């Protein structure tokens, strides 16, 4: 009897420790938030112009596109995939829409946006098909499509830029106008986040995305259609990239062959900072917002603090590394605890 | 109305190259706990997957309450009230307990398709309480212990209103106290009218719960008995009752001095208290059910998975092995089970594969000396009788048995005293098997000490000088060749014996 008492008190201790670790992983977002607030305070002390309304609006507007893309990337990462093509999809959609606008200057901005979403969705469906039906690894399929989309962008533009004077005023004003007092870009991002929150947390399809990434084998046993889920996920990603193309061109008032080149990596970085696991299965909207915001703040704040631009990306890299290491340590602790609880 | 809730007749399932089920019959009475038993690879898991609609049988019929049914996917079976709790908990570690319970049959609002979280959380809580568990339905599945996850899986089966519940080795990872709780839950389910198929390797599970037992062996149906009708011995015979008609090559050479002494080796969560000795020229068979910790022990000896308790004495010297490199330096070689993944580079030639782990020996200031490399490779390839035109043939062009020989030759480039073979004849045809046996014998007669992990009983008995049987992370018995029988081994690996090993 004494033995079982010792055993159960041991078990109790281990359980307590495990729940503590679980709590840490749960409050990861809070940690990130704390870090962001801390960063803001430090920056504010160094440069009081940081917390001005003008600068904050600027910063949020600049983060809008990144956060839209990060949302789509989160879904892709949750299914254990990755999408390297979004920068190129964005450029292609931006270029096609800009060309259209430069010819039909009367095109309604809303139609331009829908057109961008349509182009992006077609790109996304193609990738979804390659990944799910043909079974090409996501990193390979999207790498190939990245080059194809980028090549198409250069071809249709003939290497030429489309500049702001070729675009209609109404088109350029997408990025500068505001709805209900909120900048249109930010407004669109908020709408998308609300829809996504509902979709991810309150519909079966949304939850199945997590199931497929968390345990594909078991998803099969539960009768989940993985092909469908993958196509949906890459289509959403494509659609969001297409939308971002329109917003990007409008914001920077130019469409170029190399628009957003390499931006996919920034998007992936935002996801990882926000706690999305590359191994699939986990990631939260709140985390992704924070991840995108953190990157946005760093882009804005480091120059304000007179940090040399050469150092900026190195600092960003170090912060990503730090976040991932903390994550790995917590996970290792949880796994080890689970092993210790097995009795042999 | 039929007497049986579930009846399967003449079920045959073929996978490319193997017949996983061969004309299997099965009958389940309402309100019965029915044990399904058999050795590793007897076909139990495949059989379950046929019932749950994961695999469609090639032949045979299935009846539910006397009505013929055909399942094309797991959803069909679920709708008919069949639920399975699989051997390896098939949960979603990143999702909440509630979601794990309701995955595939979520409560949703009609028209909008919105998930009714509140209702689901409450329902989940209710089911968990009814199972006597206090798990919070909102907690993350991955943070629970194996026993708790098991309970969630049972809750899942209940939530589908399943009438037939299949449990595939649910107690394998549980402590005895946790098992006892599971027994009670299982009995409650039965009393509430569910019929249960219970797969287990533990006799105590079967005697505690089941009223009927059906035995499968080598993919075939052997028989079905009431639990009082059959004795322990007869059951074991039913499970292993094949005759050993394969001839094993004669052994030459003598068993020499003590080579290795392992004392109280342990690794948290995998194995504990493992002690044995190995002599020069001896073949030590290491057997037990899959998951008993055999591979883990050997990987610890080889430094892949460093042990955290116990000691290893090698040639009279106490050593600490922390990495494969150290193990090789000390003269221990390991041939992994999955040679395609861990042992060989299939796209390379035989010669380059053999020399791969000895490159520093045949290199000169960073340059490889081709002539020396090929000479060594050729010599070793001949030593183990690899059948190929030349050592420049690609390994991928060889048969499984010949690939295995190349893997052995690769080991021999290092100066070894001890060779660990993990399932050396797995996936190899009969002819190649005896060739591999001859090589193993030859190595033993040259004075190597050999540890051979194997699940195939005839092979273990035919080849080994002594046989160590593992069960749930411990060595439960060490048998001499003279007294080793299939029955004795199976009994040791399945029964909860308190006997300490005397090896």
Automatic annotation (TrEMBL), chain A:
Pfam family, one: BPD_transp_2
Molecular function as annotated in GO: transmembrane transporter activity
Top-rank taxon, per record: Bacteria
GO cellular component, one term: plasma membrane
Transmembrane segments: 30-47, 59-77, 84-104, 110-131, 136-157, 177-200, 229-249, 261-280, 287-304, 310-330
Subcellular location: Cell membrane
Membrane topology listed for this record: Multi-pass membrane protein
Keywords in alphabetical order: Cell membrane, Membrane, Transmembrane, Transmembrane helix
PANTHER family given in the database record: ABC TRANSPORTER PERMEASE PROTEIN YPHD-RELATED-RELATED, RIBOSE IMPORT PERMEASE PROTEIN RBSC
Name of the protein: ABC transporter permease
Organism expressing this protein natively: Planococcus halotolerans
